[in-house]
Write a structure and sequence with these properties.
single chain, mainly alpha, about 100% helix
Length: about 100
């Protein structure tokens, strides 16, 4: 009877050691997984910052492009107006020369 109790006690101690070992290993795995998740979250933040910066950059480029397009339209209008005035002036001078 005492021998059985000693054997079952020894078995219980061994099971406890194994259980503690498994718990320790599981905690290590959980810590490792947590570190991977944290790294992935950091990468996600970095990617989101990059995307935000790129959107800002494209917004600035788009604004600048619109300004350049407007300036080009204005210059085209000025050119047309100048040619019209110049053509009208040449026509008037030609008529005046013909009349004199």
């Amino acid at each position: 009877m005492i021998m059985k109790d000693l054997l079952s006690g020894d078995q219980a101690k061994e099971e406890l050691k194994l259980s503690e070992f498994h718990i320790t290993e599981l905690e290590k795995k959980v810590d490792f997984k947590d570190s991977i998740i944290n790294k992935m979250n950091e990468k996600e933040k970095t990617y989101l910052e990059i995307i935000t910066d790129e959107r800002k950059k494209y917004g600035i480029i788009e604004t600048h492009t619109k300004k350049v397009e407007q300036a080009l339209k204005i210059e085209k209008l000025k050119g047309r107006f100048s040619r019209s005035i110049l053509g009208g002036g040449v026509a008037i001078l030609t008529i005046l020369l013909i009349i004199k």
